[in-house]
Amino acid sequence: MRVQKCGFMTRTLVVTPNDQLAEVITEESGTFDVEATTSQLTWLNPVLTILHRCNLTKYYYICYLKVEFPIPTKHIGRGRGAKAEPYNLGTLELKNRARDLSCMSFWF
């Protein structure tokens, strides 16, 4: 997976509606790998959430633009020791993606 960066580090989260399962920061090249496990008894519907600052003005210093991608079920391992097929989103150009503005202080 590679994210086209625009100057600052990009945060990547894997979340379910109630829990954050993993968090990574992209490499300098924009690439990242993320893996998460949980012991919940219910089925998960995880979402890959990418937080970035592409095209934000300096006045939004605590805000991030948010892009979300549902993770298909064939890429989710079920059961102890289960393996899932790797999910490759390819290369993303974040500044042109539909997104929401999230103004939480993630970095502080």
From TrEMBL:
Signal recorded as keyword: yes
Any one annotated GO CC term: cell surface
Annotated compartments: Secreted
Keyword Secreted in annotation: yes
Keywords linked to the UniProt accession: Secreted, Signal
Coiled coil: none
Domain of life, per lineage: Eukaryota
Bilayer-spanning residue ranges: none
InterPro entries: Transthyretin-like, Transthyretin-like_sf
Predominant location: secreted
Pfam families: TTR-52 (PF01060)
Family designation: Belongs to the nematode transthyretin-like family.
Name of the molecule in the record: Uncharacterized protein
Organism this protein belongs to: Mesorhabditis spiculigera
Lineage of origin: Eukaryota, Metazoa, Ecdysozoa, Nematoda, Chromadorea
